[in-house]
Structures are given as C-alpha cells and as structure tokens.
Amino acid sequence: MLAMRIINLFALLIVCEFSNASRWSPAVTNADLIKHLKRRGVLKSERVENVMSLVDRANYSKYNPYEDRPQSIGFGATISAPHMHAIALELLKDHLYNGSKALDIGSGSGYLTACMALMVAPNGKVIGIDHIPGLVRQSIKNIEKDQPELFKSGVIRMVVGDGRLGYLPEAKYDAIHVGAAAPKLPKHLVDQLKVGGRLIIPIGREGGIQTLYQIDKITNETIERTPLHGVAFVPLTDKESQVA
Ligand SMILES: *[C@@H]1O[C@H](CO)[C@@H](O)[C@H](O)[C@H]1NC(C)=O
Ligand SMILES: *[C@@H]1O[C@H](CO)[C@@H](O)[C@H](O)[C@H]1NC(C)=O
Ligand SMILES: *[C@@H]1O[C@H](CO)[C@@H](O)[C@H](O)[C@H]1NC(C)=O
C-alpha cells in the first residue's frame, strides 16, 4: 500500500514536470477532479466516471469544489470529500440501474443524490432525506441549477425528516446510502432494504473512529455485514481519513 502511494506520488510528480507546473496546483475543473480520482484508483468504473463527470460539483459546494476534501456547506453541515462519493457510488453501482429505487440519508448538498438519480433514470427513483429544512431547500436549488430534468421527470425527491428512521412511504429500496455515522446498524434501514439490496453506512462509537460497512440483505432474515477497512470517518472534526 505504501509502495503504491509512493508510486502514485512519483507519477504525479512526473505529470507536473511534463505539464510545466510551477507549483502544486489543485484541480480547477470538474474534469481535473475526475482525473485525480481515477489516478488515485477510487474511481474504477465507466458508469461512475460518467455520472461524476455530468454532475458539476461547483453547483453543490461554494468553496473549493474540486479539491478532494470535505467542505463546509453551511447549516453546520459538510459535503463529503469527492473520493468518498466515488467509493460510495462504486459500492452501490450494481444496485443503481434504470428502474431501481434508492435512499440517500443525510443528503446535505444534494450532490450524491443527483449522481444516484442519474444512475437510476429514467424509470427509477431516489429519495434524498435530511433533517435541516434550510439545507434541504438549498439542495433543491443546487440540483435545479445542475440537473433540472431530475425534478421534472420525478426521478429525484428531496424530503425533510429523521433519516435514522429511513423513509417508509417510499420503501423498500435497492440501495441505501448513509452519509453520517451511526453508533450501530439502525434496524429500520435493514427493514426498508429489499432482499438483494445493499446498504452503505459508517458505524462506530461517537467520537471514535468509524468503519464504513457494506450490508447486503441476503434473505428477509439474513444480512451479510462487510467492514470496509480502507475507510474511516472522524466525526468530531467532520473529516474523513484513509486508514488503509
Ligand atoms: C428503462 O426501463 C424501462 C422499463 O423497463 C424501459 O422501458 C426503458 O427503455 C429503459 N430506458 C433506458 C434508457 O434504458
Ligand atoms: C452548474 O451546472 C450547470 C449545468 O450542468 C453548468 O453549466 C455549470 O457550469 C455548473 N457550474 C456552476 C458553477 O454553475
Ligand atoms: C419479510 O419480513 C417482513 C417483516 O419484517 C414481512 O412483512 C414480509 O412479509 C416478509 N417478506 C417475505 C418475502 O417473507
């Protein structure tokens, strides 16, 4: 892993040399950001690359939209780092197809909800849920600027509510993404997952390091829990760090 990092860094240095960059410059376009995520190996599939290319992060994050770091979006909330969005979409992509139904809990800026919606369009539906009304209104404005057809076609719906309870009126879901850490796996979310569906959620003690879990519903009574060791959320600072 360390060796790979060093090789990556070396490759980056070579790219800088050849592009005659006088300083370490951050990504300045959405396309630059996509290139960075591919080079880093978090963006793997063409489908996720296409969707992240279509959704311009500048419409969702006022500050440094193309930097691979979480950013403040007001209301005491953050938009996750782009690599976290890429990881989530890669994990969920086989459950996000034309006609499938998804739930994005802690939808925040609306960025990931919009990406998911493009993946389930035209016949699917994604519900974004967040508990702060002002944040939900802002996310609707963001999506209307970036992907207005998603509202017209009814593929996306943003609601105010307590995401820990899921969203029963539209259950059950093929894919559920949780963008905030939970101390343990919420039963409501497992209940609202279809058999064959997948849930992605950071689980762990508050104030500690949390592990991203992949929960697959095998039958109505059985789930498979897969801890994804590579990623941990550090909730107190709202930062996410790679611990692999
Ligand atoms: C999406 O699914 C519907 C229903 O199965 C189908 O009629 C439609 O052609 C599909 N659209 C695309 C773009 O795949
Ligand atoms: C927002 O989205 C629109 C439509 O995709 C795009 O033209 C625009 O460049 C994006 N960025 C900003 C900062 O408005
Ligand atoms: C799955 O369990 C729920 C209750 O948890 C029940 O309502 C439903 O009928 C069950 N479905 C099947 C296919 O057994």
UniProtKB/TrEMBL annotation:
Span of the signal peptide: 1-21
UniProtKB keywords: Cytoplasm, Methyltransferase, S-adenosyl-L-methionine, Signal, Transferase
Primary localization class, coarse: cytoplasm
GO cellular component: cytoplasm
A single BP term in Gene Ontology: methylation
InterPro entries the UniProt entry points to: PCMT, SAM-dependent_MTases_sf
Enzymatic reactions: [protein]-L-isoaspartate + S-adenosyl-L-methionine = [protein]-L-isoaspartate alpha-methyl ester + S-adenosyl-L-homocysteine
Entry's localization field: Cytoplasm
EC numbers: 2.1.1.77
Pfam families to which the protein is assigned, alphabetical: PCMT
Gene Ontology molecular function: any one: protein-L-isoaspartate (D-aspartate) O-methyltransferase activity
Assigned protein family: Belongs to the methyltransferase superfamily. L-isoaspartyl/D-aspartyl protein methyltransferase family.
UniProt xrefs under NCBIfam families: pimt
Protein name according to UniProt: Protein-L-isoaspartate(D-aspartate) O-methyltransferase
Organism annotation: Dinothrombium tinctorium
Species classification: Eukaryota, Metazoa, Ecdysozoa, Arthropoda, Chelicerata
